[in-house]
Fold each of these.
Amino acid sequence: MNRVAVHAHVVRRARPGELRVAGAARRGELRELREHLTVSFTKVAEYQRRGVVHFHAVIRLDGPGGPTAAPPAWATTDTLANAVQHAARVVSALVPAIDDQPARLFKWGQQLDIRPITLDGDLTEQAVAGYIAKYATKAAECVGTLDRRINPLENLDAFDLRDHPRRLIAECMRLGTIEDLADLRLTQWAHMLGFRGHFSTRSRRYSTTLGALRAAREDHVRDQEFTTGRLPLFAEDTVFVISEWTYAGKGHSAGDQLLAAALAGGCL
């Protein structure tokens, strides 16, 4: 891969949001559809070994009231699939000339796999949940890069990096010094090969929120504490403060002593 290809590789990965913004601008032409349906989605990003980020999205057509409302009869799976294919084909983002590289027109690639999610078909909701769980634990390390931010003063040759990720990181560092690209923060995100997005995002109405899930966990734990008698039953607005401390001891336990000795290479 020559320098021109590395340059395009990095800048394309750093600007996926511009393709999504361009798509949103086209969707603005169809705002009247909001009176009939709501487009909801969740998206996860997956690193490929070659350093390219793939996006996997679950897109759903709901009624105008959100997930609890049924979409109109004409909003079928085929209608949604055709809309996604059309958007991927026509949406683009123009990146101006940078450094010694010409302007480029970025578009979505040809790898577009659209499959319906069914209860008993080839792709079930359980399978999708498994895929998302896998992507949640799959970061840029699969490319061979580092799991922490890189200081511009550090010598990349000192790290055990394959040639491909090393060149991508070096290009992020180089492009990060160009003033016109400062908003991309390529230096800070060089360890992620320029991609600075969250691995998972969703539309507002797609499902529940993380705040609601945390509140549900807190309620569940509190109810368990009350049920088992570990906490007295108070009104919900009562603040329970434990102000007593009990001395537990000092030093290592017997097991901790064995572990510390093993790590130190000594003996008890």
Amino acid sequence: MQLRYNYRVYPTPSQQIELARAFGCARVVFNDGLRLRQQAREAGEKYISDGELSRRLISEAKQTPERAWLGEVSSVVLQQALADLNTAYRNFFASISGKRKGRKMAPPRFRSRKDNRQAIRFTKNSRFKVLDNGKLRLPKIGDLAVRWSRSLPSEPSSVAVIRDAAGRYFASFVVTTQQDETLPPVDSEVGIDLGLAHFAVLSDGTKMAAPKFLRRAARKLKRLQQNLSRKQKGSANRKKAVRKVARAHTRVADTRRDWQHKLSTKVVRENQAIYVEDLCVTGLGRTRLAKSVHDAGWASFTSMLEYKAARYGRTFGRVDRFFPSTRMCSACGLINDEMALDVRAWDCPCGAAHDRDVNAATNIRAAGQADLNDRGAQVRPGLVSAPRGEAVTHPDAARSTRGVEGIPVLRGRRGCQTGRQDAGSSHPSTSRMDAARSSAPARPPTAACPATVSGLTSATQPVQPPGSWATR
């Protein structure tokens, strides 16, 4: 398995100048290659190959007075810049042809010196080396002081030097682990219901409070942004203010990342199988919950769980986002109508009393186990196609808000257009992600029976006949 290890580096002022020169040369070569291919396309010429691009923009360009300064940096840096361009084009072509799954990729764009992130990459061909004294030797740059937080598990195959928006420098090593890191097997399996009031609720009843790192730093960020707005554009004081704002944001991001790493490692070590819900974070980003959703960082947390489970020999699974984990009774399988957001506990006609989030986590665990079950056990209803008017997501779905445990939530309306709703019904967006299923396919009821939800009587629908569920 290939892993990436990041370390903070502290270049001297002269080394910072050399790094800036390398960043600029790599950026120029990348932009020249992009411009050359765009011009060839506009002229109706054939696609310029990777080798031809390297010969014209590096080998021949160094011999011209206009690009003679490209020889002041390592040629590997320039070759890797073109490799990034070629990768961007391949991803773009694979996306538009349908070979690459997921969201459509945009064509490569020009790089700018004003980009918040600048990076160069060295491979083994450049003969970079980690010295015995702990410094990192890079060609035509020098020996960089590295703060080693831990040792590398193996010899690195490449290293990237990165400068972020806060002016910090990092060395990112790519290593391949050969040793077996499989953890001893355990008996417990867990389903995780992610939310906002509680960041994660486990199927065993454990609730982890949401740290809300961005909300806690909002006052300081507001003051820094106000100071920035008063600075004259183009002045040195404005650059200093921009740097302060960037440092405040990086502090929030670093704190969140550290907390998520510790939590994900704990979950992976204590459970043999982990199941989560496949949420549409992009759709949630179009609602009034967007700030809280991005502050929570669900996508990064689930990505950590996935790669750590693969690394340590655990099982990881994602449950379909349209699975009604909140409204389904984990005891009998009865599916209730859409619940109000303030309903945190409800009673099923079968006699089971449920906590909203714990019940959802329990259903996620059962659905994940069914997807990976060789016997094909069915624990959830079959798929039903959604009405045409309910199969889309609209960015303006919110019309009014209501607070749940200190967090603003949505009450939308559903109808022929997304974000509209018949009178008397409520939007399923909750503090735990019901908004992610704002475009979920409706499941038409076959019969109705009363169910008591927090002392109120509402109509419910029985479980639909089990359908054919493909193994995810």
Amino acid sequence: MVVERNECSKLSRLILDQSGNSLDKLGKLSVKELMKFKGIGEAKAITMTPAMELGKQRASEIPISKPVITCSDDAFNVLQPISR
């Protein structure tokens, strides 16, 4: 069965709503808990579980800072170490 995009969007909102709009709680749902939602079978729930875990790991990483370049001296200081 093909699930329409609108149905997927509604299902996603429903699952997030049932998780208290908490991505942390959503990520802790088990395969059996996900399967309670109409339209999510075992295969889909098993696929969703590692994707949510990956999302949690990504969220916990410290973002890489990007240098702010406002003048030619800033650009030189950023590029000079890699031009050797």
